[in-house]
């Protein structure tokens, strides 16, 4: 039984071909393509308004140099929200439950912010490794600790997204299994359990949206430090 619970996180195959590429590409097909017309339909208008509002809030604390990252960060957040929401549908696969995919997002973006910081303002970037006013005997220890914490950042981002989504999917499957087992024996308890399952599903919808923010917010802080 425990093996079947984790089978939902295995990458699906069809004729030996992994379908994770389709699961990653499909979300972009669901969004309408903006046209060059002055007057668009309601869906494109709402989509453009939401993306503009989010971009303004995202780029507000950053200087002009950080605004170059707006397209990349907004696209990443929309992509993660779509994948996470589609993963809550029955008989679907959530690519963001794979640590390799999340690390593929986290490591290049983190490395890009570090390289830009070292190139544009190396003194400030290296200054983050040693807080001001540190006693001389503690300088080597603090430099080692800050360096380790710097390299652990992408791992923490990838593990956080993977663990939160995996735990939510496992909990939903466990409670759903309990509902089916209890329904013939104790209908009242099964109905109460189903109510808990419905509330948990609503919570997972919120978590699916919040997790994209958990990826976006640290990168915004990294940009503030290095740009």
From TrEMBL:
Keyword Membrane: yes
UniProt KW Transport keyword: yes
Gene Ontology cellular component terms for the protein in this record: mitochondrial inner membrane; proton-transporting ATP synthase complex
Keywords: ATP synthesis, CF(0), Hydrogen ion transport, Ion transport, Membrane, Mitochondrion, Mitochondrion inner membrane, Transmembrane, Transmembrane helix, Transport
Signal peptide range in chain numbering: none
Gene3D superfamilies per UniProt: ATP synthase, F0 complex, subunit A
Catalytic activity: H(+)(in) = H(+)(out)
Subunit structure: Component of the ATP synthase complex composed at least of ATP5F1A/subunit alpha, ATP5F1B/subunit beta, ATP5MC1/subunit c (homooctomer), MT-ATP6/subunit a, MT-ATP8/subunit 8, ATP5ME/subunit e, ATP5MF/subunit f, ATP5MG/subunit g, ATP5MK/subunit k, ATP5MJ/subunit j, ATP5F1C/subunit gamma, ATP5F1D/subunit delta, ATP5F1E/subunit epsilon, ATP5PF/subunit F6, ATP5PB/subunit b, ATP5PD/subunit d, ATP5PO/subunit OSCP.
Similarity remark: Belongs to the ATPase A chain family.
Name under which the protein is recorded: ATP synthase subunit a
Organism the protein comes from: Tor putitora
């Amino acid at each position: 039984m425990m093996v079947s619970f984790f089978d939902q996180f295995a990458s699906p195959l069809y004729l030996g071909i992994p379908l994770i590429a389709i699961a990653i590409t499909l979300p972009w097909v669901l969004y309408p393509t903006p046209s060059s017309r002055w007057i668009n339909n309601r869906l494109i208008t709402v989509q453009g308004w939401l993306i503009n509002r989010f971009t303004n809030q995202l780029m507000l604390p950053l200087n002009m140099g950080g605004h170059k990252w707006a397209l990349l960060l907004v696209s990443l957040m929309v992509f993660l929200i779509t994948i996470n929401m589609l993963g809550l549908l029955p008989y679907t696969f959530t690519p963001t439950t794979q640590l390799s995919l999340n690390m593929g997002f986290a490591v290049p973006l983190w490395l890009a912010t570090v390289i830009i910081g070292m190139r544009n303002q190396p003194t400030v970037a290296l200054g983050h490794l040693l807080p001001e006013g540190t006693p001389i005997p503690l300088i080597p220890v603090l430099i080692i600790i800050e360096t380790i914490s710097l390299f652990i950042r992408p791992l923490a981002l990838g593990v956080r997204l993977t663990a939160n989504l995996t735990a939510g999917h496992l909990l939903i499957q466990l409670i759903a299994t309990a509902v089916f087992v209890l329904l013939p024996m104790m209908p009242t308890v099964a109905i109460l359990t189903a109510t808990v399952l419905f509330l948990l599903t609503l919570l997972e919808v919120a978590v699916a949206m919040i997790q994209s923010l958990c990826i976006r917010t640290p990168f915004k802080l990294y940009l503030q430090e290095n740009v």
